[in-house]
Design a protein that fits this description.
Distance between the termini: 15 Å
Largest sheet: 4 strands, antiparallel
Helix content: 40-55%
Structural class: alpha+beta
Number of strands: 10
Order of helices and strands: EEEEEEEEHEHHEHHHHHHH
Radius of gyration: 20 Å
Number of helices: 10
Strand order of the largest sheet: 1-8-3-6
């Protein structure tokens, strides 16, 4: 299952079972495993093939096969391959309230403390936790009756193991740069169909265009406008897969008022034309 990070309103699991379990494979030569983003959920991620460079806020973490990390709620992150080899990772994304509801004492004592970084959970995962992640992945694939209970048990165990190894901090430093980037991401996600300039993005954070570009590149290795164009293209790819709208209509809906520029960017980011992309998707689904 390929996680559609770029798609709007990404929902991990269901309201009753808010857990997303992913086993993603990427061919050699791909430029990015997933784009810069953040979410309210906790995430466990393990590299199962190849190697990647994972950006967590302002820290770059090399991840090799068999290594895994815990990604806290609200943490900006994205990943690129470490080389041109194939890459795979397994990930579990789940609501913190899956462990304990907000009105419960357990939530205040443990979960809220992790989210607010009063408890510093170790970044790198132990072998026991990684084995539980892979076991949970296999349980999910089996779709056997009762697997939800085993999956919940595993996730609670993994979270408990992380919290038991955590260190308490006396105070946490607020990251203003992350707030700036998150503000830009939220604005793009909610307004990508409208005209957006670099000035528009910078003015929302009351900073200069130059300062915004510096801050954004620290977190994403590319500019806000490149991110905007990538996001628009991936939204258009989703529409090409899921609707019968014409290519020109999709381009306009995704914020492009010039079809030739849309085609140029689509080719750059997707390595094929919009028409070929839709045709290949149709062939793939008809073959299944």
């Amino acid at each position: 299952m390929i996680r559609e990070i770029y798609e709007e309103h990404v929902t991990h699991g269901t309201a009753d079972f808010p857990v997303g379990i992913y086993d993603n494979h990427f061919p050699a030569g791909i430029s990015e495993l997933f784009p810069l983003h953040y979410h309210k959920q906790f995430e466990f991620l393990v590299m199962t093939e190849g190697a990647s460079m994972l950006q967590l806020e302002n820290e770059t973490i090399p991840l090799h096969k068999g290594e895994g990390v815990f990604i806290n709620s609200g943490t900006l992150h994205h990943a690129v391959p470490a080389d041109n080899s194939e890459c795979s990772f397994a990930a579990i994304v789940f609501s913190p309230e899956f462990i304990a509801a907000k009105h419960e004492e357990l939530y205040d004592r443990y979960i809220r403390s992790v989210i607010q970084k009063e408890l510093a959970v170790p970044l790198m995962l132990t072998d026991d936790i990684k084995n539980l992640i892979l076991n949970t992945n296999e349980l999910f694939k089996s779709q056997r009756f009762g697997t939800e209970l085993l999956i919940k048990s595993n996730i609670i165990r993994m979270t408990a193991m992380c919290i038991m190894a955590a260190e308490r901090r006396r105070e946490t430093k607020h990251d203003i740069k992350s707030d700036i980037v998150k503000n830009v991401l939220d604005y793009i996600h909610n307004n990508y169909a409208a005209p957006i300039s670099l000035y528009d993005l910078a003015s929302r954070s009351h900073i200069s265009k130059e300062h915004l570009c510096r801050v954004f590149k620290e977190r994403a290795d590319y500019s806000p406008i490149v991110y905007l164009n990538r996001y628009r293209i991936m939204q258009s790819a989703y529409m090409l897969r899921s609707t019968d709208k014409s290519v020109s209509e999709i381009a306009f809906t995704c914020g492009f008022n010039n079809s030739s520029y849309f085609n140029k960017l689509f080719m750059r980011f997707m390595n094929c034309s919009p028409t070929d992309y839709r045709r290949n998707v149709d062939i793939m689904y008809s073959a299944n």
